[in-house]
Amino acid sequence: KAAVIQGVKREVAVRKLTAMQLKRAKNRGCTLYVVRMIENAEEDNDFMEKYPLLRDFSDVFLEELPGLPPKREFDFVIEIKLGTEPISKAPYRMTTLELVELKAQLQELLTKGLIRPSVSPWGAP
Predict the structure, then answer these.
(1) Which portions of this protein are annotated as coiled-coil regions (predicted)?
(2) Alpha-helix residue ranges (DSSP H) falling in the chain
(3) Which of 68, 96, 97, 99 shows a CA-CA span of 20 to 30 A to 39?
(4) CA distance 104 to 110
(5) In angstroms, rounded to a whole number, what is the distance separating the alpha carbons of residues 17 and 12?
(6) For the segment 6-53, what is each residue's pLDDT rounded down to a tens digit?
(7) If DSSP codes are grouped into helix, strand and coil, which group holds residue 32?
(8) What global pTM score does this model have?
């Protein structure tokens, strides 16, 4: 039995900002975020030195996310057809280091209240 989950796809605008755009956004009081992915922590040491623009505007970016977004008028809901059963699939294989990192990140998110434990059969296995 196959389950099809449908939803409305929204285009998310992710773009780079010029120094002038960043300055204007700061003056308007916008909240801005910098997202950066690294493969190992050693690369993180001289990050701000490589990008002087980020150093110049470091006061614009939050160190930590303040929490979950506010409640909206309409929360996202996935409607499931009656009789549909959860799909059970084994997690991807991970190295010991990857598993340790995953557990640490999950614990941090739990501690901050950004995620919560779930016993839903539709949750992760």
Answers:
(1) none
(2) 19-27, 47-50, 52-56, 96-112
(3) 68
(4) 10
(5) 15
(6) 555 666 666 777 888 888 888 888 877 766 666 665 555 566 677 788
(7) strand
(8) 0.42
